[in-house]
Amino acid sequence: MTPLDKVEGRAIPFGLKNIDTDVIIPAHWLKTTSREGMGKGAFETLRADPGNLFDSPEYKGAPILIAGDNFGCGSSREHAAWALGDLGIRVVIAPSYSDIFSGNAVKNGILPVVLPQAAIDRLMEVAQTDPVHVDLDTQTVTTPFQDRFIFEIDPFRKMCLLEGLDEISLTEKSDAAIGAYEAKLDAERPWLRPAAA
Amino acid sequence: MTRPRTLYEKIWDAHVVEQRPDGTCLIFIDRHLVHEVTSPQAFAGLRASGRTVRRPDLTLAVPDHNLPTTARKDAAGNKLPIADADSAAQLAALEKNAPDFGIRYIDAVAPEQGIVHVVGPEQGFSLPGTTIVCGDSHTACHGGIGALAFGIGTSEVEHVLATQTLLLQPARTMEVRVEGQVGPGVTAKDIILHITGTIGAAGGTGHVIEYTGSAIRALSIEGRLTVSNMAIEGGARAGLIAPDETTFAYLKGRPYAPKGADWDAAVDYWRGLATDPGASYDKVVIIDAADIAPSVTWGTSPEDVVPITGTVPDPASFADPSKQAAAAKSLAYMGLEPGTRMQDVAIENIFIGSCTNSRIEDMRAAAAIVKGRKKAANVKWAIVVPGSGLVKAQAEAEGLDRIFTDAGLEWREPGCSACLAMNPDKVPAGERCASTSNRNFVGRQGPGARTHLVSPAMAAAAAVTGKLTDVRELMG
């Protein structure tokens, strides 16, 4: 995973609430055995409109997306995060996310920034004309107009993003603890192993 | 004395392998369900890193999302090929990955094949008090038998395959209590639609919802699975319903469920899981069952719920400006005008199926309405897709398939089907579908498709009248 620290660039002033993962990447794009090339399908329905934001000269390839409440709701498809990443997006800024989406985003080096609606409204305004700067280390979003918004992030997620950490390698360091848990489970609740069908 | 705990806290505490200083916990996963769409990249990851599956015995794979619901075998019993090359490739990948990594596999033509969330409880693979994950958000379904079950992304699928654990932060808890008795024609689906309309699509974000109260206790396991299935539509990654005698009676004797003395030990353990008196939730919502009507969605978010006796709302009636904008967009997509009576909305397509509503009880409820009636002339496409081969066989033993086909509805092979339209079952652009599935998102049932979420009985009612209909008018 590519580490993420500072991101500066144009921010797509998208802003809609309850954007579900079917909108981010329609189901027919899920018929693949690869993680690659999904940017083509990102927001496919919206991008069928020639005047859409994503393909406009100002915002094409922009690294930041500003969205509304409950972004990424619906399906668990990680394809949504893959599609955003392939589109060039490294940061999403929204008032809230679905739990599954925000986890998937972090695992793919995409930072889900949570800010209150008033901050989102201001950033939507700035994004019309100017770039936005996101700094994960200091947990701030700033603009060329002296706006400075501080965001919270779970320390474990922050570390994973800053270091581009592979969670499986990290968990494998706990191999002995997992083994001990399994032994205890077999002793205390042996019926938990699926019966021979 | 120990602090009183909720059902969620008891399951969580019993699965902590390790707690990190920042509060993140390594949680043991008791059951991992795998299907063909969200797993290929995870298996590829294992291969690339030279890893194996830590606990193949706790993993069960079954294809469901992509499979066509038309005949899978020819007259001679040979497997028919899948026409769509991409779907066929995903199925072939799972067929290879499961044996390569030593995982139990239910084949596309096996009698037990079905939607992963129907198969898990039906096979007794899903058990109360366990942690269950699957690369599918409707894994919340298994909360209906008292399992902490939630959807995960493909990176997490790979993590669970490799380590049988997940790194998680504890969720907040939310109680949704439904007290009283529901009226005639009101089913588990109406209860969860009503709840979703009440709490909103993000109402449960960051929470695990425990459904309690006499109206929930009175539900069968099929009904409880329907309610918990749609916890995710209210934003909660998992739903829970405390296991009780109804749960134990449902699970006893199922293939993977404990047997003999093991069964008794398991039931003893399960009896201790219910939320302790005096335990508290972070959030509580109380609903009077008498307020719940047969319900239907009008928009493109599952929170857009009205009683069937209601009308399409005016976007201006919402207090939140962003909801006003969303509602206006929804109505444009749905081709509906504010003030239109829901019962005046004509329907061209009917889908009875999905992990929400494809169990035997759902088949019976739909058949009871269709029996002796005919599909309306304006209904072009009406399919009934049982949730598993075993549901299909049971329904056929009861003659339900004949009731459907006599009325002009199609009786199909099990799978996810038109719920997400990954297989050939799609609703044409601009047409409406009365659907027993879980999501009315833009394009969910096919590009441009307009979905109205309803119960199986309500979908059946729409099939015979050709419009959204108050099922109570068709009940004897």
Describe this structure in words.
The complex is a heterodimer of chains A (197) and B (476). Chain A has 197 residues and is an alpha/beta fold. Chain A has eight helices and eight strands, in the order ββααβαβαβαβββααα. In chain A, the strands form two sheets. In chain A, strands 1-6-7-8 form a four-stranded antiparallel β-sheet. A four-stranded parallel β-sheet of chain A has the order 2-3-4-5. In chain B, helix 2 crosses helix 5 (154-163), helix 6 runs parallel beside helix 8 (221-229) and helix 12 (360-370) runs parallel beside helix 15. In chain B, the strands form five sheets. Chain B has a five-stranded parallel β-sheet. A five-stranded parallel β-sheet of chain B has the order 17-16-15-18-19. Chain B starts with 6 loop residues before the first helix and ends in an 11-residue tail after the last helix. The longest helix of chain B is centred in the first third of the chain and has 16 residues, at 85-100. The model of chain B has no long low-confidence stretch (mean pLDDT 97). The chains are: A alpha/beta (197), B alpha/beta (476). Chains A and B meet through helix 4, helix 7 and helix 8 of A and helix 2, helix 3, helix 5, helix 10 and helix 11 of B.
